[in-house]
Structures are given as C-alpha cells and as structure tokens.
Design goal:
This is Phytanoyl-CoA dioxygenase family protein. With 352 residues, the chain is α+β, with helices and mostly antiparallel strands. It folds into two domains: 31-300, q2cbj1_9rhob like domain (Jelly Rolls, Sandwich); 307-346, no CATH class. Helices cover 29% and strands 17% of the residues. It has helices at residues 20-23, 30-41, 54-65, 71-81, 95-101, 104-114, 197-209, 297-302, 318-324, 326-331, 335-346; strands spanning 44-48, 87-88, 118-126, 142-144, 149-155, 166-168, 215-217, 223-228, 233-235, 247-254, 258-260, 277-278, 285-286, 289-290, 293-294. The strands form five sheets. The protein has a six-stranded antiparallel beta sheet. A hairpin with a 6-residue loop joins strand 12 and strand 13 (285-286).
Length: 352
C-alpha cells in the first residue's frame, strides 16, 4: 500500500474498495495481490490451505465426525430430496475443526484483504454435497458496514461433478445486497417458518437478468476457496449418493462492525436480529459496534424480533395492561404512567 495513501472509505472492505489499486499496489506480495484481484473481480479466489498437516487433520475430522451423520437415511431419502448432511460448530468439541478455522495464515490474509481483523464465528462440516440452491450469504450473515463477512471452504477429499461440485456466478458479489424490503416482505408479519426460499425466485430472476453464467469448482483435497459475502453460490446435485464429499466451511466476520441476520430483520419496522457471537480463536464474545462505539445493549434488546410489543402501543388499553400485569393493578398506580416509566424497559405485556 502506498505510504502516502489515506483511505477515506474505511467502512468498505479493501477488496471491494474503489481505491483497490492504491491499496494493493506493487508493495504487496504477489500471491496476496493475486488473491485480492480475483476476489475483487470474481468474488472468490482459490488457494492451497496453508497448513502442512492438513491431510492428517482432514482424515482425523472424517473419523471423529463420521458417527454424527445418518448416511443410510440420507442415501435412502435425503439425497433425492436435495438436502445435505452437516454438523454446525464442531469446533467446540473437535480440535482439528477448530485448528482449521483458526489458521493464523488465513486470519492474517483475510485481515489484509478486508482491512480489519478477521475472526471466525461458525464452522460447518459436510460429509456429502450441500445440494443447495444458489444463494448469497448476505441475507444470513451480514454486517454494518456491509460486506465485512466472508467464507472459506476447504476440500477434505477430491471433488468432481459426481460428488457435488460447488457452483458460483463470477462477479455476482458486486450486485446490490437485496433484503426483505426489496422483495416486498415484512418478515415480522409472515406466518410460518421463515427460510431463504422467499428469496429464491428473485435470485433466479437476477441471474437471468444479468445473463450470469455459472462456474464450477472441482477441487483437489487441500484446496481452499475464499468467497465474498454477496457472491451467488451453491452446491450442485450429487450424482453419486454412494460417494462422500467431505469439506469444511468457516465463516468469518471482521472487527468493529455490527453483526445481524437481515432475513430475520425489518430495521424500519423496529426489528433487528443482532447476533451475539464468540470469536472461535479466543472464546470471547465480540461486541456489536459502530465506528468504534459499542451499540447499547438496551437498543439490541429493544429491537429483538421477539420484542415487538411496541406494535400495539398506539392502541394502548389501560384495562388490558392491568389485566396482563396484576402486580401493577394491585399497586394502584396509573397504568399508562407505569408503562412509560417502567413497563417498556421491563418488556411488560400490553395485554393478557
């Protein structure tokens, strides 16, 4: 990076910055520049996982996690249904899963690519192909400022078209991030289980509108793929259900951000699904922040999707409030005054 360069957009990841050429100038190591350029242009980059013991770790993970999966059930039903098998957050009990997630060279590389310290917050271990509809992680894991999230996928065995190659759409990471309001949904008012299925028609339309062409990753054991938060990606159909397709995904956030789930949030309806997450490296909870300042806990609690009591405030009924809170009724205090002074903070019910 140029010594005299001042980055006036610190809230944009380096690899997606309009100042990319000045940040990744000739002073940067060639391999880092290659990875940065591919992330900037395509939204993903391939590299060899930087640990000489990877093969040994991969075999240990396969052995240790094998009993966690219902292979027979998957081959009989799950494969046809287009679902997968996974164990989330095996880092908590498997040292090799944690070691892969916390690889120091990966952390240093990601921190340089994004301009903020990277930290791992989730692992997923797959013994077969994901068979997932193409999607963007930005609806599941997002930050403010946006795009400070990435994934690192690493192959624990050779992968080809028969055991579930990855599919992605190069350059799609540069498309706008579309959330609930863009697809005309208020998630707080939707009935039933919420899933990414509400986005899938839009994603298909986007791919068609952009005339985006898929690319496929037939990985060799030990190859890793870094992908940007908004890259459209998924898993192809596993053609041979008798084969395995072992892999590990680690998701990373970056320091000094707010972390939340857009698919479960309606910010201008008063609902933000903030995430409270641990740094896998240290075990410490990382605070939600805005430009170096912690977001007040009372705001995080007040905007929780489970705390939408404010919706009924315009129709506040003192009699119903007293029925819902018999201790207030017994105290003989004014119900409206009590709610404004105490009930809101205590998240009291407005009606029985």
């Amino acid at each position: 990076m140029s010594v005299n360069f001042h980055n006036s957009l610190p809230g944009v990841p380096h690899v997606e910055s309009p100042f990319f050429a000045r940040i990744f100038d000739e002073s940067i190591a060639p391999e880092t520049r290659r990875i940065a350029f591919e992330l900037a242009v395509k939204g993903y980059a391939v590299l060899d996982f930087p640990d000489a013991d990877f093969d040994q770790m991969a075999e240990s993970v396969k052995q240790d996690l094998h009993s966690y999966y219902d292979f027979d059930g998957w081959r009989a039903e799950g494969h046809k249904a287009g679902i997968s098998l996974r164990v989330q957050d095996a880092w908590a009990f498997d040292e090799n899963v944690k070691r892969i997630a916390c690889n120091e060279k990966i952390l240093a590389l990601l921190s340089q690519l994004y301009g903020r310290q990277a930290w791992p917050f989730q692992t997923l271990n797959f013994p077969v192909g994901t068979q997932q509809h193409f999607h963007t992680d930005s609806i599941h894991f997002s930050s403010s400022p946006e795009r400070f999230m990435c994934g690192v996928w690493v192959a624990m065995e050779d992968i080809d078209e028969t055991n579930g190659a990855l599919v992605y759409f190069p350059g799609s990471h540069r498309w706008p991030i579309y959330t609930n309001e863009h697809i005309g949904k208020c998630i707080a008012e939707l009935e039933g289980t919420k899933s990414q299925a509400i986005y899938e028609a839009m994603w298909r339309d986007l791919v068609e509108a952009h005339e985006a062409k898929p690319d496929y990753f037939h990985a060799k054991k030990g190859q890793a793929l870094i992908w940007a938060a908004n890259l459209m990606h998924g898993g192809t159909k596993q053609l041979d259900p008798q084969r395995t397709r072992w892999s590990q995904v680690t998701h990373y956030f970056f320091e000094d951000c707010a972390y939340y789930t857009p698919m479960m949030s309606d910010p201008f309806y008063g609902s933000i699904a903030f995430r409270t997450l641990k740094n896998i490296v240290t075990g410490e909870v990382i605070p939600n922040q805005v430009a170096g300042h912690r977001i007040p806990q009372r705001f995080i609690e007040a905007t929780s999707p489970d705390q939408l009591q404010w919706k009924d405030e315009d129709n506040f009924d003192p009699a119903l409030y007293l029925l819902a809170n018999p201790d207030v009724a017994a105290a003989g205090v004014d119900p409206a005054h009590h709610y404004l002074q105490h009930g809101r903070k205590e998240r009291r019910k407005l009606r029985p």
